[in-house]
Fold each of these.
Amino acid sequence: MNHQHPPAPPRIAVVGGSLTGPMAALLLLRAGFDHVAVYDAAPGGAPRHGGLIGLADPALDVLDRLGIGQEEFVAFGSQYAVQMSVRERAVTGTLAQVYPGRHTTWTLLHHALATRLPRHVIHSGRRVTGIGEAGDGPVLRFTRGRRRGFDVVVFADGRASTGRRLLDPGRRLRYAGYVAHRGTAPLRHGGVREFTSVQPCPGVLLNLAPVPGPGIDWSLYLNTTADQYASWFGARPDERLFVLPEHVSALAYAHVDANADTWLPAAQANLVHATAARTAVPVMDIDPPRRMVWPVGAGFAVLVGDALAPVRPHTARGLNNGIEQVADLVAVLRQHRRYGADLAAGLDGWQRRHLPVVHADLALGPRIAGRLGLGARPDRIVELV
């Protein structure tokens, strides 16, 4: 047993203010780490958007431990996921299965997390531009020449991660060949009371669910070339990873409406037509990571969640991976702080536990999409093992 005196409390930076970042910060604060700062590139009060999220039991348990009850973030009570069969725009049958978890929305969960973060912890509008090192650990560089030193930096800054670009620049996002068009129809129920999936033909997939408001959240997945994407949204997929309503052109509206009218039953097509403000997300792939931890001076920088490796939405693993990774990371840091456990060894064990899960999810996404007829064929996707 290590009988050394516990080290001084580490200075910890969390980069990213969406979901995984605030989750990491709350877990650190709950574990007794006082020197925690969250840096969010988005200005305070900036509008944000996000779709449906499935949370598995391990992630739900982490939220329980933070004192966040499900009544705050569960979008609807039913655990059923309904698969609707369609032929020639007519519903031919439904199959209901129990989803092993709960559904929420980005908006509900972000509100539950952000309202619990102390104001002094989160720094909005602070964009990280680089990372260097001093003798005692990493130094973050910000816009306007600002710098600040830490012992541990947790990059949880999403698909367009600055941390990944700085620490692991060889891994670049690749467009998978299809887009999730999103919106919320301002209709009560609309015949939808559970998460519902509609696939009228290969290459077209519609997911629906009731959300507070009231309304119906929908995501319509359609195959799209990179040139079409640029024409509809003003930039190529790797340049615009999230399409805000102001970027959605009339051509994009017409394309989505035409597909809805061609493939979907009238009730579901009407939900799409009833949605005035729409967004879109290109589905992206990335090579599997070989590491999650980088020594920087005497400290460390790590990548978690989508910053490490965004997985395809059909796996329902994106946020679950991030939550499970940060919960385990906090356990490693707590053992180091309380008992002097070797931090380098603890972080090595942490990445050995989580890398295989991420690799499996990255491989699973293209296989599911292939069965749905979405994007590139899975046998044409190169996977690094």
Amino acid sequence: MDCAYYQDARCRSCTELLLPYPVQLAARETAARALLDPIGNWDWLASATSPERGFRNKAKMAISGTIEAPLLGILDAVGNGTDLTACSLYPTAIQDAFAPIAAFLAQARVQPYDLRTQTGEAKYVLLTLAEHSGELMLRLVLRSRESLDRVRKASPRLHADLPGLRVLSVNLLPEHKAVTEGEIEIVLSEAQALRCQVNGLPLYLRPRSFFQTNTAVAAELYLQARAWAGNVGARSIWDLYCGVGGFALHCAHGAKSVLGIESSAEAIVSAEQSRDECAFEGVRFCVADAADPGQMPKTDPELLIVNPPRRGIGVALCRWIEGSTIRHLIYSSCNPQSLAQDLARLPGFQPREARLFDMFPHTRHSEVAVLLSRRAP
């Protein structure tokens, strides 16, 4: 894929960009199989592929430049900014939103944060697109409340310039450290959540909710989990690290009971909103630490779905799964290396099917989901 940013060495985030997409995909498949095949005999299904362009539903843009002319893009090691508003990973609806957002920051007189002097206010623009509707959620990451009133006062103009803007919030990140957002979120719009639609199901994203950055591939991932749940005939399902409920809601049909567990109370509110809109009986969600076996209900499910962070589910949860009466396991991972480590801790489960979901084209990263069943005693 041609990219002027890459060719001019202004951005090298897409490390595999010079390789043709089929070559990239084959390399990611080979890497995943090298990690997982030593664990057992998998039936590898055809990979779920991605568009090469316009596939990202979320943009994270560092703010630099001046108070009169904010610049959205990336920063180098010393804080110099590069404009990335024409990055072809973003769909047109996101690209077209950057200029109105920059104008809004200038109108509100929000000083870009300077890494060198650790002064200024505006750190990041976090923008999410609901692709089925074209609606947007914009989060401004600011150092303090200093410009909050000006941002609030200028917001009607932003809504006029961006008719699709549904949710607007300010996130406060006072610390000077290598993170993207802080703990305090101030929603400035009437709407509290962005309604996304995946495979006909509503998923509500609030400002701090997690959702996969590639909607098309995420849709394939959810459909695969639904198919596996149907194939094993599971009547009771738990979804650990359930987020806004994507796996749980997709697997609700055919199951008598579905439980989603997630530490984020905000995500659980979203999941329950989707459940109620769909009128799914037998589906419930609770706030708990999915990594802590001590917080699990006492009756094991037939099927367990886990979708953990990159670090994986870890020793304690693997030990609990191994000693449980769970019959089937679906494990979705954005880090095949930690996936392989966790599966090696589950010798009581027989590998069945595996599939790569190409969530992150032009990089070496991939999402891999696997189905396992408990070995006969």
Amino acid sequence: MPLDHPYIIVGLGNPGPEYDDTRHNVGWMVVDRLAVGCRTELKLRRGGFLAEAEIDSRIVHLIKPTTYVNLSGQAVATLARKLDVPTAAIIVVHDDLDLELADLRIKAGGGSGGHRGVDSIIASLGADDFPRVRVGIGRPPGRMAPADFVLKRFRKNEWPQMDVTITKAVQAATAIVTSGAQAAMNEFNRS
């Protein structure tokens, strides 16, 4: 892929203080930390909080869609068309119930794994070839419904692990921009 195109890094999450620090908002947490590291500020625009950054001489647009997780594709597709970003240069950071708490995996494309936000992005882009940074949030306890679990806040004793993983997710997204998805997978998907 040529270096003359910009990238988009999308963190999935829900707007509003009631969703702060919830499991479903881990993508937002990663983008917030990435913005701080890039010394840029996310500003509310139509469709989400946006910022422009530079990573290794590449222009990267950071976005936290405010369309709610399950409708994230609307904001992502609109921004991708406006900026003429190829789908393979859109990096989606999201929570994943199928990974243990604080585990991290990069996926180069394919299906959504049942994540409705990723489903929305696939449907809106008409493509599934974008890389994802999947951040493990664990499984619901007992008989709790997954839809309820993802809206729960992390417990106090889970934060030290999650803090490390959020930083690692920033590094993973950055590695996709600088080295490509395959190289980043080789680096970050080791057990």
Amino acid sequence: MLRTGKCPNYAGCLLAYRNETVTVPEGEPFLCPECKHPLLDAGATGKRKPMMIQYLILGGIAGLVIMAAGAVFIQVRHFKDKVQTGVVGTSFENAQVAGEHHEFLASRLPEPAATPAPQASAQPAPADISNVQVQTPDLSLQEKQNQEVKDEVLKRIDLMPAITDEDKDKLYMSVERARQMGRILSIPFPTGHVAVAPADVDGLRAALASPQLQPLVKDPTCVFVILGFADLKGDEKTNLHISTVRAQAVLNTLRDRCGALNVMHAVGMGGSTLFGNQKDAVRNRVVEVWAVLP
């Protein structure tokens, strides 16, 4: 009497993989002729499908998905660990964002050495003091420096990257035809900084409210031209970008946080020795606000 069965060794037997029925003569071992694995009686297996291979494949795919997800998670954690709070340094992309959001960028200079804890009798540290300097307006173009700056501004207007040709023409004509023009504010910037410091925000707000500047702030015909400067330590393109970001940061502060309604233009003047030679770099890291009257 013949017996029929199926091999359950799906992982190592072709007959099992094909789900083929094996016929064994009576008296012979009820084994698979290919892999010698014990057969299962055909009646007992019924309509059983060779699912082991499918399970192995699905298990392998699931394992790969879990490994990939783990690798992504590790990379994200590693990236987050490297990101510092705020915007630091003078990276141009970060500096642009910092200027637009009025963030104070930390200096790239080495951190100072830790100082000993103060004694009980020590006086508390003074609050931050604004570096904003208010100039009594001298808008006469007969003044030599006023005329020199006017000439330099006219040269730089064509280099302004984020302004249309139409607006460049309007600004050029506004400066070129100005009957009065002079510096009213000066904001120095430490090295590695391109945004307005918190103390200087308060200083700008107080300056605009001062008796010297109130007539200009209230004059709708008065245009504020905001000139950004850098020292000569970097290349020309780098200095132009840094000076432009500084000027734009001051413009944003005047408009968004000090309530200035005057028409304003930010002009990057690039690296400069207008305020001293190259050795006197600190004097050239500055933003100036100039009042221009028709």
